[in-house]
Design goal:
The protein contains eleven helices and 13 strands. By secondary structure, it is α+β, with helices and mostly antiparallel strands. Strand 4 and strand 5 form a beta hairpin. It starts with a helix and ends with a helix.
Length: 322
């Protein structure tokens, strides 16, 4: 028997076992022989036993159930069923991924399971109706940003917004932004590129789904500043950007600790008081987004310092009550 025939038979056997077997759905010796015959391949039980042993020696977690006839199944895969379910749920719920791409990716992920397991996944998944991106170019954008990060090159692009009639427009009359990208970051269901902005002369973040007409340039990216840590940046600034950076002292009710940790991480330092509150100092960017976040707790969080932050917060409250 030629090596080509043996290779073809082994590939057919692997495909059958991976596509159609799991612990609850083994295939018998008769099933395998019938499968070979349907695909123009002949074999016998002795050859099948040798093939099974060879696959096991090569690392396939292939289980043989001794019975009459014997049965076989793949016991473990690269991804277990709960892991695939988790990944599919993430794809389906992501606002960044379009509805069309969500379906395509979910189908590919389900294809990593057996046929029967894939049916189970399909019964329990589906695009969940939440707001999804309509920007089909995002994968191209992510690819360009990733390439620029790896090659340490700057990127150029325009930024897209909406006007009052829900029409897509370019920010600042089509201004071209130049950025030295350092990382892609997922935050609160949106994808951001973080890097050094030539215009702002500081590290900033841009929503990937709003980036259009992106190109990687030949210019070398600005090196990351010394001491820059992704964790510090993400914990303190994301969700509170678009303003000058400052250290802010907050007095918070004890029962709000979980929200402070959710926003700033477990590494923050806190100082308990005798009034059923605690003090903490965090780094944020002073902006309406930050003040709005403080306001939502109905007085449970108070800004203690700096003075300009207190005045800006009071002015914003006054503008809503006047």
């Amino acid at each position: 028997m030629s090596d080509n025939i043996m290779k073809k038979r082994l590939l057919m056997l692997i495909k059958l076992l991976q596509d159609h077997t799991d612990e609850d759905h083994p295939v018998s010796t008769r099933d395998i022989m019938a499968y070979y015959k349907e695909n123009g391949m002949s074999s016998d039980r002795k050859t099948l036993d040798a093939d099974i042993k060879l696959l096991q020696e090569q690392g396939f977690d292939l289980i043989k159930i001794k019975s009459s006839p014997n049965k076989y199944y793949i016991a473990s895969r690269e991804f277990e069923l709960p892991e695939l379910k988790l990944l599919i749920d993430a794809v389906q719920s992501s606002r960044f991924i379009t509805e069309k791409k969500s379906r395509e990716l979910s189908k590919k992920l389900a294809g990593l399971a057996s046929a029967e397991q894939a049916k189970e996944l399909n019964r329990h998944t589906g695009v969940n109706g939440r707001a999804k991106s309509t920007n089909e170019q995002q994968l191209y954008t992510v690819d360009t940003i990733t390439k620029a990060i790896n090659e340490k090159k700057k990127i150029r692009y325009q930024y897209q917004e909406y006007d009052g009639r829900k029409r897509k427009i370019l920010r600042n009359n089509g201004e071209v932004y130049i950025l030295s990208p350092y990382m892609l970051y997922w935050n609160e269901d949106f994808y951001y590129v973080v890097g050094y902005s030539d215009k702002r002369e500081t590290i900033t973040a841009f929503r990937v789904d709003r980036i259009v007409n992106i190109e990687m340039t030949d210019a070398k990216a600005v090196k990351r500043p010394k001491g820059f840590k992704v964790s510090n940046y993400s914990d303190s600034i994301f969700g509170m950007y678009s303003g000058p950076e400052a250290e802010v002292e907050l007095e918070c009710c004890n029962d709000l600790m979980k929200y402070i940790i959710d926003r700033f991480g477990e590494k923050i330092k806190v100082r308990p008081t005798e009034n059923g509150t605690f003090l903490t100092t965090v780094t944020v960017e002073l902006s309406p987004v930050f003040y709005g976040w403080v306001f939502q707790f109905g007085g449970g969080i108070r800004i203690i310092n700096p003075t300009n932050a207190i005045k800006e917060f009071d002015a914003m409250l006054a503008s809503y009550t006047s």
